[in-house]
């Protein structure tokens, strides 16, 4: 992989014997790597947001299948069953990001091919590990391409708003929505980024502001309810966000609050871009109505950071994601280029060309 100015923290590292995983719950205060040794460790890390962001969840889960099957002994069929069981368990960790299921399907399919091959058990285990490593390194290359395509949409001096964290921390490297900011830095293009803090668990404040500031990108943190104000001031020329799943018709699921930002962008005549790898596009889900939306615990809202901020026992609704209907989406930026409406036709064509 070519060397670049990007020096961000890596969220998932295969150590050779286990997974070193950056605990993203502790950022920006503490940089702590957890040592994960089992599929259950990975399940818990995904479930409790120690690793989060659609591509990073997929990468971690791929290694989870390796960890969950590596102790199998005897017949290769027992190893295959262990891999399948680990994948089935990991698939229950979170429901919305399709990259999780994409990575698990890819790992299971590879294990099936290996189980039917002439390779012995040790060789098959090693080849399955190589598949997880490939998923991770392909994500890095993919994100760089996404960044290159996205950067063609921005000019020097522009203000760009983003929501949640679709950066290096959420992926193997660079991020999706944040990739163009890192590439702009390399090329001396100056962009002003506005990061929504992203209630309730503050991925924008804790992660996006952190990684962009570390890299030297001009970033300004705002509360979610300030997006309309900064748009009305004329400070925002474009919005770019990541996504957890794009439906076949171009509806986009992303972190809760994204839909509001898209509506505000339309009201202010500001383009609303979505950046993602092909592995986030799910042609099997016809529209946003069929995307499963995760609901998380009320405590994220009532006492998210250790201090109670609402009366005990109050009713809470806490969906982790929302769906932005395709009519609000100006373009979807993938490693294969910039896709514009009609999304139902153009997303399908993207896969037909592969
Ligand atoms: O709950 P999270 O932190 O996993 O939500 C993450 C997002 O919504 C990201 O925007 C999305 O996964 C894209 S990451 C490149």
Automatic annotation (TrEMBL):
Belongs to the EIF-2B alpha/beta/delta subunits family. MtnA subfamily. Keywords: Amino-acid biosynthesis, Isomerase, Methionine biosynthesis. This is Methylthioribose-1-phosphate isomerase. Catalyzes the interconversion of methylthioribose-1-phosphate (MTR-1-P) into methylthioribulose-1-phosphate (MTRu-1-P). The keyword Cell membrane does not apply. Substrate binds at residues 52-54, 94, 203, 254-255. Its EC number is 5.3.1.23. Pfam families: IF-2B. It comes from the Bacteria. The record marks 164 as: Transition state stabilizer. GO terms for molecular function: S-methyl-5-thioribose-1-phosphate isomerase activity. Gene3D superfamilies: translation initiation factor eif-2b, domain 1, Translation initiation factor eif-2b, domain 2. NCBIfam families: eIF-2B_rel, PRK05720.1, salvage_mtnA.
């Amino acid at each position: 992989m070519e060397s670049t100015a990007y020096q961000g923290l890596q969220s998932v590292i295969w150590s050779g014997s286990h997974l070193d995983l950056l605990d993203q719950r502790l950022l920006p205060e503490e940089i702590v790597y957890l040592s994960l040794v089992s599929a259950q460790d990975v399940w818990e890390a995904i479930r409790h947001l120690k690793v989060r962001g659609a591509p990073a969840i997929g990468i971690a889960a791929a290694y989870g299948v390796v960890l969950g099957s590596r102790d199998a002994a005897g017949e290769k069929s027992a190893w295959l069953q262990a891999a399948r069981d680990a994948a089935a368990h990991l698939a229950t960790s979170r429901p919305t990001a399709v990259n999780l299921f994409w990575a698990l399907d890819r790992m299971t399919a590879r294990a099936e091919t290996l189980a039917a091959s002439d390779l012995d058990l040790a060789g098959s285990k090693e080849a399955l590990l190589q598949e997880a490593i490939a998923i991770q390194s392909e994500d890095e290359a993919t994100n760089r391409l996404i960044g290159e395509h996205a950067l063609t949409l921005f000019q020097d001096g522009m203000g760009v708003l983003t929501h949640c964290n679709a950066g290096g921390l959420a992926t193997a490297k660079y991020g999706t929505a944040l990739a163009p900011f890192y590439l702009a830095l390399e090329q001396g293009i100056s962009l002003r980024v506005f990061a929504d803090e992203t209630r309730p668990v503050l991925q924008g404040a804790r992660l996006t502001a952190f990684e962009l500031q570390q890299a030297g990108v001009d970033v300004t943190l705002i509360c979610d309810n300030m997006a309309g104000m900064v748009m009305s001031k004329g400070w925002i020329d474009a919005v770019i966000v990541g996504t957890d799943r794009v439906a076949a018709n171009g509806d986009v699921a992303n972190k809760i609050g994204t839909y509001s930002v898209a509506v505000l962008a339309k009201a202010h005549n500001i383009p609303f871009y979505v950046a993602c790898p092909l592995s986030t596009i799910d042609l099997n889900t016809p529209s946003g109505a069929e995307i499963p939306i995760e609901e998380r615990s009320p405590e994220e809202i009532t006492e998210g950071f250790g201090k109670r901020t609402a009366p005990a026992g109050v009713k809470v609704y806490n969906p982790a994601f929302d769906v932005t209907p395709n009519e609000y989406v100006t373009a979807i930026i993938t490693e294969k280029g910039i896709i514009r409406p009609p999304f139902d036709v153009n997303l399908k064509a993207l896969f037909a060309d592969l």
